[in-house]
Amino acid sequence: MKEILVVKDLKKTFHLSRKQQKIERTSSSLKVALNGLSFAANEGEIYGLLGPNGAGKTTTMRILATLIKADSGEASIDGISVRKNPEGIRKEIGFLTSDLKLEDFFTPTYLFNFFSDLHGVEPSLRDQRRKKLFGRFGIDRFAEVKVGDLSTGMKQKVSIAISIAHDPKFIIFDEPTNGLDVITAKSVTDFLIELKGEGKTIILSTHILSLVEKICDRIGIIFNGKMAVSGTLEEVTGGRPLDDIFFELYQKEGGEF
C-alpha cells in the first residue's frame, strides 16, 4: 500500500496568556502541544487519531490542514510538503473541524457555491456535486433556509458537504460526530465508510473509541503530544477491547481518573 501521509517529528509549542494558564492550571507560560509526533497513513484507508482532550489531536489536524505551522518537523501529503507548499496541500484536502462556524444568515446553497468557487470548481460540476451531496444528507429540503434556522445536526451535514465540495482525495475530519444525536452521528459514520469506498483517504480525530473500532483501518493513540502506539487495530489491541488498551496507556503516561 502507498503511504500518502507521512508525519515526522512534529513539534509545536504555544504561548499561554495568564487567563489560559489559569484554565490549564499551570504557572508555565508555555504549553507543549506536540513533542516529536510521527506516524503515517496509507492511501484509501481511514486512520483514527485517538487521545484525550489536550493530547494534541486538533493541533496535528490544523498543521496538516496548513492552518498553523509546526515549530519543527515535517509532514507531507501525497509527496507535497505541508511546510513548503501549503497552497498545494489546500488543493488536495478537505478539512472539517468542530470549530467551523457557518454564518447564520447564509443558506446552504450559497455557502456550497461560495466554497466551490474558492476551489475553482466549474459551475456545472459544482451543481452536480451539490445535488449529490445535498440529496445524500437530506439538505436539499433546507437548501434555501438560513443556517441560523437549521438544527445542530443539519448544520454539521452542511459543514461536511462544504468541506468536500471540490471532491478532494484526502480528507481531514476533526471530531466529525462530536455533539451529534445518535441518528445524525450514524449518518456521518456511514458517509465516512462511503468515502473510503470511493478511494478517499481519511484522517479522523476522535475520542469515541467505538467509532474507531467500527470504521478505522489503522489507529494511533497520542498522549501529551507523543505517539504512544500506532498500527492496525489488531496490532494495537491484540484482540483485546480498545478501551482496555487506551486506559492502560493513559495510566502509563501518568493520567488519572
Structure description:
It is a single chain. The protein has a six-stranded mixed sheet, sandwiched between helices. The chain has a four-stranded antiparallel sheet with strand order 2-1-4-5, with helices on one face. It is built from ten helices and ten strands. The longest helix is centred in the C-terminal third of the chain and has 16 residues, at 182-197. α4 (108-118) runs parallel beside α6 (152-163) and α5 (123-137) runs antiparallel to α6 (152-163). The protein is globular, with a radius of gyration of 19 Å. By secondary structure, the chain is α/β, with parallel strands linked by helices. A hairpin with a 2-residue loop joins β4 and β5. It has helices at residues 18-24, 57-64, 86-92, 108-118, 123-137, 152-163, 182-197, 209-215, 233-237, 242-252, and strands at residues 3-15, 30-42, 46-50, 72-77, 80-81, 93-96, 170-174, 201-206, 218-223, 226-232.
SSE inventory with pairings:
Blueprint: E1 3-15, H1 18-24, E2 30-42, E3 46-50, H2 57-64, E4 72-77, E5 80-81, H3 86-92, E6 93-96, H4 108-118, H5 123-137, H6 152-163, E7 170-174, H7 182-197, E8 201-206, H8 209-215, E9 218-223, E10 226-232, H9 233-237, H10 242-252
Helix pairs in contact: 4-5, 4-6, 5-6
